[in-house]
């Protein structure tokens, strides 16, 4: 048998590292938040309260904002909810919460804005679905009325087409045209085209009516991962409008998280997307804020933004039969997330802090040295000592019953020294 031959050496350039440059778009101002252009990808969410219930809606908006949602959408579906919007915005402002509130309109939005001008003024943006803004001859008239309100009150709009409420007249027309093709498209491609055309044609009509293109965001939501990727790749090539990404009806729990992350990460890696929402169905008893946390973690793990210190932790194996390292990782992650609203103001930059909680000697010291602060806990059979590494150097060894409290104190002290107002003075 001949000796193994060495692999040929190629000198081809390595593929580019990191996400593609962001797609160039028009920038849209939504209240005090910029979307598109050179602005970072913005996280948004939506309440699931009855908007007419002012107290519960204010409470949930505040929770979403504190979790990091930079835009919050509310349902405006009846006169009571429209009348409640100005009071909701006023109460939030009194609490020092100036998050832009977006009104989600379907079917009767033109009537609600006409009858509640204070609602039209209080909202930071209107979301319009071209598939159900009106039907038959009323569609164009009612769409125009909504755009005229946006022009009158100086508001941006999101023209959001949705797979589940597609403009059936447009879909039928495109199907008929497809039958005349020499090489007809399959049905799914025709429906994707109908979704894209619904958004683009509606945006073009809004511009004709006088709404500046810099006040338009587009979205084309579907519930399938591959369909969403295909739709947005096409949409991104055919316009320079800012784009909102989201997998509609993503699902509950890990399914919704995985599906949304799979679709959005591909598009974000290609530079597509200016604002995102993770549309999770909350598990019973789970907070609505989970969708905000997932959106932030998606952007942060991709290196697109930093929101809160992230904790690297090993998954555990037979060397880590104790659950202490899992418990410590959870304590640390919850601590820094709870502190972040305060640190964001008093210790800017703390969101870039990297932490590691490792469970044994195999990778523990190495991973801990790579983090700003890391701890390597003793695995099964190892000496009952937990070395702590700060900025790559061993700093102290923790022992005993108070490791969690002492490690959290070390983190707080590090944040104060590195990111506090007197840091570097």
Structure summarized in a few sentences:
This protein has 425 residues and is an alpha/beta fold. The chain has helices spanning 54-67, 79-94, 109-115, 117-122, 138-153, 168-179, 187-209, 225-237, 253-269, 290-301, 324-346, 364-370, 403-419, and strands at residues 28-30, 33-35, 42-46, 71-75, 101-105, 125-128, 157-162, 216-221, 242-245, 251-252, 275-276, 280-281, 310-313, 354-358, 373-376, 386-390, 393-398. α12 (364-370) links the parallel β14 and β15 (373-376).
Description of the molecule:
The protein has 425 residues and is an alpha/beta fold. The protein is 43% helix and 17% strand. It has 13 helices and 17 strands. The chain has helices at residues 54-67, 79-94, 109-115, 117-122, 138-153, 168-179, 187-209, 225-237, 253-269, 290-301, 324-346, 364-370, 403-419; strands at 28-30, 33-35, 42-46, 71-75, 101-105, 125-128, 157-162, 216-221, 242-245, 251-252, 275-276, 280-281, 310-313, 354-358, 373-376, 386-390, 393-398. An eight-stranded parallel barrel has the order 3-4-5-6-7-8-9-11, surrounded by five helices. Strands 13-14-15-16-17 form a five-stranded mixed sheet, sandwiched between helices. Helix 6 (168-179) crosses helix 7 (187-209) and helix 7 (187-209) packs across helix 8 (225-237). The radius of gyration is 25 Å and the shape is globular. The N and C termini lie far apart (69 Å). The model has no long low-confidence stretch (mean pLDDT 94).
